[in-house]
Amino acid sequence: MTIIFLVLGLIFGSFINSFVWRLHLKYSSSKKVSKKHSFFKGRSMCPKCKHILSPVDLFPIFSWLLLRGKCRYCHKAISLQYPIVELITGVLFSLSYFYWPYSFNLWDYILLMLWLVILVILVGLAIYDFKYKILPNNLVYSAIFLSLVFATIYYIKYDQTSAYLLARLYGVLFSAGIFYLIFQVSNGKWIGGGDVKLCIALGIILGGPLEVVLMLFLASLAGSLMSGFLLITKKLKANMTIAFGPLLIFSTFLCFFFGSQILNWYTGLIG
Predict the structure, then answer these.
(1) Long-range contact set of residues 79-85: C-beta below 8 Å, sequence gap at least 24
(2) 189 and 173 Cβ atoms separated by less than 8 Å
(3) CA pair distance 212, 33, nearest whole angstrom
(4) Quick check: 87 and 23 in contact, CB under 8 A?
(5) How confident is the model at residue 36 (pLDDT cuts 50, 70, 90)?
(6) What residues contact 239, with CB distance under 8 A and at least 6 apart?
(7) How high is the pLDDT of residue 85?
(8) Distant-in-sequence, close-in-space partners of 257: CB < 8 Å, separation ≥ 6
(9) How far is 22 from 224, CA to CA, in rounded Å?
């Protein structure tokens, strides 16, 4: 089953690449997007020469390798982003199944499928923010809505306690509240409003101040390491900004599946 989820993730990774490109085309163009660039009616095409791709060009990762990273038609380089996103999504899907924290009955499978949909949206947000330094509202609001649905289903089926609801509320208030304060103090220069809204979804997913603190710590640590690497390699420029959304999303994934183990390990060290 893990292999099946890996393949499923590769396929959705390919979808994410296409979706991010079409979404940016929609936002960056002053004209109405044509049908061939539509999310639902458009066919897969080379982003450079716009040639419609044949089925043999659409196999995640393998097509990129077979074509040696170049378009079959215009022979221009295909961004390394495409196989990397496909691979990352495949790995995240397979890890989600392998480390799924709940049992596998009907409702747990429903929760797993819902989680994978949320994951697709979060990966899409991470890629969009990494490339264009913005978190599109329609994706952020979708993540918030589906996170609420996920939490509601779990509450109704498994944990009908006030503690569960309070944990989600505290998670949202703590994560989004901290980022809202930073946003106001810096007048939007340190973080964007999209990060604040994204933290609403992440707070619902994680629930509880401890998990949120761990998520923020891991994201900040990753950001510091990235900045340090760029500084050492002399690639960090004065006006350069690092997208924080991908770091928050990656840290949320780690905390959702491994947060308890990380916290137990840490308390063991200081105990």
Answers:
(1) 81/17, 81/127, 81/131, 82/14, 82/17, 85/13, 85/16, 85/17, 85/123, 85/127
(2) no
(3) 39
(4) no
(5) low
(6) none
(7) 93
(8) 95, 96, 99, 101
(9) 32
Q: Please write the tens of the pLDDT for every residue from 82-112.
A: 899 999 999 999 999 999 888 778 888 899 9
Last residue of a domain, one of 66, 98, 130: 98
54 contact partners, CB below 8 Å, separation of at least 6: 72
State the number of CA atoms in the 13 A half-sphere of 210 facing the CB.
9
The boundaries of the domain holding residue 191 are 106-271
Distance (Å, whole) CA 131 – CA 129: 6
Q: How many CA atoms lie within 13 A of 36 on its CB side?
A: 7
User: Could you report the per-residue pLDDT of 198-219, keeping only the tens digit for each?
Assistant: 999 999 999 888 888 899 899 9
145, 37 Cβ separation under 8 angstroms: no
138 with 75, same domain: the answer is no
Q: Do 167 and 266 share a domain, yes or no?
A: yes
